[in-house]
Amino acid sequence: PVSVGMSLDIASIDTISEINMDYTATIFLRQRWTDERLCFDGNKSLSLDGRLVEMLWVPDTFIVDSKKSFLHDITVENRLIRIYPNGTVLYALRITTTVACSMDLTKYPMDKQTCTLQLESCKK
């Protein structure tokens, strides 16, 4: 098994729809793990073009209850891959996602809603 560290920053909550029972947010997702196969000599990290992600193993993380999501790609895909000499990989991306959120509006306008943003990993 590979231990993957994660951090997530919410850049913006773009819309909340009580009609569709969802919200749209833009997030920055960072994942870090070590792959001994990528060790190299040196003392500086390597930053790789995001298109090279297809050549590496990356965690199969997904957003639970996502209705639709996309990676930003202006002017290039917003992905960062940095490899450190000890084989540690930093993988960061910017995602906009629309996530289902079941809301109870029976007490509107005195209601309070709690919407979650959950990430999971597929088991293969």
From TrEMBL:
<dbReference type="InterPro" id="IPR006202">
    <property type="entry name" value="Neur_chan_lig-bd"/>
</dbReference>
<dbReference type="InterPro" id="IPR036734">
    <property type="entry name" value="Neur_chan_lig-bd_sf"/>
</dbReference>
<keyword id="KW-0472">Membrane</keyword>
<dbReference type="GO" id="GO:0004888">
    <property type="term" value="F:transmembrane signaling receptor activity"/>
</dbReference>
<keyword id="KW-0406">Ion transport</keyword>
<dbReference type="InterPro" id="IPR006201">
    <property type="entry name" value="Neur_channel"/>
</dbReference>
<dbReference type="GO" id="GO:0097060">
    <property type="term" value="C:synaptic membrane"/>
</dbReference>
<dbReference type="Pfam" id="PF02931">
    <property type="entry name" value="Neur_chan_LBD"/>
</dbReference>
<dbReference type="InterPro" id="IPR018000">
    <property type="entry name" value="Neurotransmitter_ion_chnl_CS"/>
</dbReference>
<dbReference type="GO" id="GO:0005230">
    <property type="term" value="F:extracellular ligand-gated monoatomic ion channel activity"/>
</dbReference>
<keyword id="KW-0770">Synapse</keyword>
<feature type="domain" description="Neurotransmitter-gated ion-channel ligand-binding">
    <location>
        <begin position="1"/>
        <end position="122"/>
    </location>
</feature>
<comment type="similarity">
    <text>Belongs to the ligand-gated ion channel (TC 1.A.9) family.</text>
</comment>
<keyword id="KW-0407">Ion channel</keyword>
<keyword id="KW-0813">Transport</keyword>
<protein>
    <submittedName>
        <fullName>GBRP protein</fullName>
    </submittedName>
</protein>
